[in-house]
Amino acid sequence: MGKKYLYLETYGCQMNVYDSDKVRSVLDAELTNDPGKADIVIINTCAIREKADQKAFSSLGRFKHLKVRKPNMILGVGGCVAQLYGERLLENFPHLDLVFGTRTIPLLPELISRVEREKRRRVEISFDVEEVFEFEPYHEEGRVTAFVSVQQGCNKRCSYCIVPHVRGEETNRAVGDILNETNKLVKKGVREVTLIGQTVNSWKRGEYKFGDLLKIVGEIEELLRIRFTTSYPRDFTKKLIESIRDVPQVCHHLHLPVQSGSNRVLERMGRTYTREWYIDIIKRIRDAVPDMAVTTDIIVGFPGETESDFEDTMRLLEEVGFDGTFSFKFSPRPETPAAEYYDSVSDKTAGRRLTELQEFQREITVKKNQSRVGEIEEVLIEGESKNDPNWVTGRTSHNRIVNLPGGADLRGKLARVEITEGFQNSLRGRLIENQKEVSHVS
């Protein structure tokens, strides 16, 4: 039999995208965008909110008729929904062949082979798979950015969060493995890596801590930029702030989830810091790196959240001056303490608060983007614009999208760009003539 075809759907965060790249790497199959052509269909799922669950279930339902037409096709589901529900997925979806967890991707070739051989459905959701990170990194030709996981799982115990349950306890990857994968990606044309982990800045291995890791990765030749996400506020140290300041490849953008501006809600969430502490750490970071852009995550409508609590969050938006927020209504998750809280906020009230918060943040973001007009920015060009082949698109160090006239020869280069317009979600600019040679961001 010739090469098999793989159809892959991915939902959720950067870690899920990274995990899907691992699936591509470990399977000897050619990717296809047509599920009807596929020998293997895999849905990589997210369980962070109830809506994400429903997307996974809906996607599984869509493939029922395809499975009837192609009974030998392998239909599998992985990721956090698979880890959360396990055997129940096989009970609810009789056409499903395989359920695999967040740490069992290395076993996927053997799991699929056994399903085909034994004609028996399987579930494998163990956290006890060794060398979870050992794989040849997949990278799409032409892309200049990539994710590199430095950590799996989480030791924090936020009352609303399902991550520790579906990804296990924190496991930090060895420095050599991180460097090996990053070097391989750079040889494939990658010029910017984003180091990812559930609480990435809590990474430590032996005598090394995350600030040391930034310095070590920064020594890789031809790597122009380093980003990292997602950070935990309490794990920001003086040494880490100094590394961000001193390593020229580290971008001046930080994603630091606050979740609420109310001390009462933060305590109930189990976040281990106060709003005052959060504001202070932002001040210390901006004292070291004055132009640091900061984005955050916010949950509205957490059980027991009052109007006064919500107003504290709105004031925090203005006080910190976030460049952007990812905001959501509270969604109770199984296996979490907050799912048992009795004093829920009505969906109508939570929806109204979410709208208010997002509209206010939109105003802040537009003003910040418009304030960049006239500035000269270094933009890493990622490729052609989706809307016009005569334009290219890239990102500033602050993670702002910039569109400008230009050709494909700019891909993978740091270009000096004058910003001419600022919008809600992007900037527009023009290439500065007589480009200087640059090896890193300023």
Verbal overview:
The protein has 442 residues and is of the alpha/beta class. Among the domains are: 4-124, Rossmann fold, CATH 3.40.50; 141-251, Transcription Regulator spoIIAA (2-Layer Sandwich), CATH 3.30.750; 376-431, Nucleic acid-binding proteins (OB fold (Dihydrolipoamide Acetyltransferase, E2P)), CATH 2.40.50. It contains 14 helices and 21 strands. It has a six-stranded parallel β-sheet, with helices on both faces. A five-stranded mixed barrel has the order 17-18-19-21-20. Strands 7-10-13 form a three-stranded parallel β-sheet, sandwiched between helices. Helix 9 (210-217) packs parallel to helix 10 (238-246) and helix 13 (307-320) packs parallel to helix 14. The N and C termini lie far apart (53 Å).
What is the structure about, briefly put?
The protein has 442 residues and is α/β, with parallel strands linked by helices.
Strand content: 15-25%
Number of strands: 21
Shape: globular
- The stretches of 5 or more residues where confidence is low (pLDDT under 50) are 437-442
What strand order characterises the main sheet? 2-1-3-4-5-6
CATH fold naming of the domain at 4-124: Rossmann fold
Secondary structure tally, helices: 14
CATH superfamily of the domain at 4-124: Methylthiotransferase, N-terminal domain
Helix content: 25-40%
What value does the Rg take, in angstroms? 23 Å
The whole-number mean of residue pLDDT values reads 94
Structural class by helix and strand composition: alpha/beta
Distance between the termini: 53 Å
Q: Tell me the major beta sheet.
A: 6 strands, parallel
The CATH architecture of the domain at 4-124 can be named as 3-Layer(aba) Sandwich
CATH class designation of the domain at 4-124: Alpha Beta
